[in-house]
Design goal:
Cytochrome bc1 complex Rieske iron-sulfur subunit, cell membrane, four-stranded antiparallel β-sheet, five-stranded antiparallel β-sheet, disulfide bond, alpha+beta, Rieske Iron-sulfur Protein
């Protein structure tokens, strides 16, 4: 309390000590003393080999379940189509493929995880060992000690002695990565030889992409640039974008004396030549034509091709010329293809010879 002169008196002097009754105990028992480790309690598997064998069979069964889960994962990936929908309570309508892949992969991973935990809890050594703190750098004695601990741990785990567990664990861990490898299949359909072929074939009429009418030689004048597509290809087709990305065509008419490449002249018709519209750099559509120089320019990265000289590259990052389509005229007077492109269109790819 404080008097009128501002002096203070400690009122705690008159209060009984809250810890007085336990002060003697505090002196006798250090609360910060090291309590040590409790006595080691042996598990049933440590003293009963029959119980240990049972645990071994349980672990092996879990690893085997993991293997079956991985095999089921791969089977479901093959069996169920992407668009198959099924009703599963309580989830409702779900994708059969996604549900089966998630379920089987969970079984595969859970089998390995639970098997490893059960192995550690029932068969591996569980005796706690105290290791005093040591310097960060390891001397030869410490390294030898760690090596001996590793050898002891491996021996106590029974890894070398319990062949059934070891074999099934190897099998489970070897099969699980296959699930990830199989998922690579979903990156897209296998190209097979689709990159080598387009819709162009012998007798296919060249259709003007703007008018949707067959192209006739008199429709193509010197200095003009016309775009064409194969007969029968419609914008309403489900795969129109995929097909036009390979079959899009550029039609130009040059004076026969301006054509430098002999084969180009033979593959054309009265100075009319047809080249792929797809740039050989990254596949951009080419649309810029210089009438005086007979050059076409890709707007994406400025690759330039000379249409009077086999569409060879004269500037830019493109790696090879534009493929030429051999054309002629049919009995109706329409321009037609005499086959497919001789080489794949568009950018190069590693399978290309």
């Amino acid at each position: 309390m404080s008097d009128e002169f501002g002096s203070h008196k400690d009122v705690s002097e008159n209060l009984p000590s809250a810890h007085g009754a336990h002060s003697g105990d505090a002196v006798q028992h250090d609360p910060f003393a090291n309590p040590g480790l409790p006595p080691h309690e042996y598990r049933r598997q440590d003293i009963d080999e029959k119980a240990a064998k049972h645990s071994e069979r349980v672990v092996a069964g879990l690893f085997t379940l993991s293997m079956l889960g991985t095999i089921a994962f791969i089977a479901c990936f093959v069996i169920f189509p992407v668009d198959k929908i099924v009703y599963i309570f309580p989830f409702g309508h779900v994708s059969a493929l996604n549900f089966s892949l998630g379920l089987t992969l969970a079984v595969a991973l859970l089998g390995i995880g639970v098997g490893a935990v059960h192995w550690a809890r029932t068969l591996m050594s569980d005796e706690e060992i105290v290791d005093e703190r040591h310097r960060a750098d390891a001397d030869d004695e410490l390294r030898e000690n760690i090596r001996q601990q590793w050898i002891t741990g491996a021996r106590e785990s029974g890894f070398g002695r319990r062949k059934l567990i070891r074999t099934t664990m190897y099998g489970a861990m070897a099969l699980v990565p296959l699930a990830g490898v199989v998922l690579l299949r979903d990156l897209g359909p296998l190209p097979e030889d689709k990159l080598f072929h387009t819709l162009w074939a012998k007798g296919k009429v060249l259709i003007n992409s703007n008018t949707n009418k067959p192209l006739r030689p008199e429709d193509v004048v010197v200095g003009s640039l016309t775009f064409a597509q194969p007969e029968g290809l419609q914008e309403s087709d489900e795969d129109f974008q995929q097909q036009i990305a390979k079959a899009a065509l550029m039609i130009v008419r040059l004076k026969p004396e301006d054509i430098k490449d002999k084969r180009e002249a033979q593959w054309g018709h009265e100075g009319i030549v047809a080249f792929s519209k797809i740039c050989t750099h990254v596949g951009c559509p080419i649309s810029l034509y210089e009438q005086q120089t007979h050059h076409v320019l890709c707007p994406c990265h400025q690759s330039t091709f000379d249409l009077s000289d086999g569409a060879r590259v004269i500037f830019g990052p493109a790696g090879h010329p534009l493929p030429q389509l051999r054309i002629s005229v049919n009995g109706d007077g329409n321009l037609v293809a005499l086959g497919d492109f001789a080489v794949p269109v568009g950018p190069a790819f590693w399978e290309r010879s």
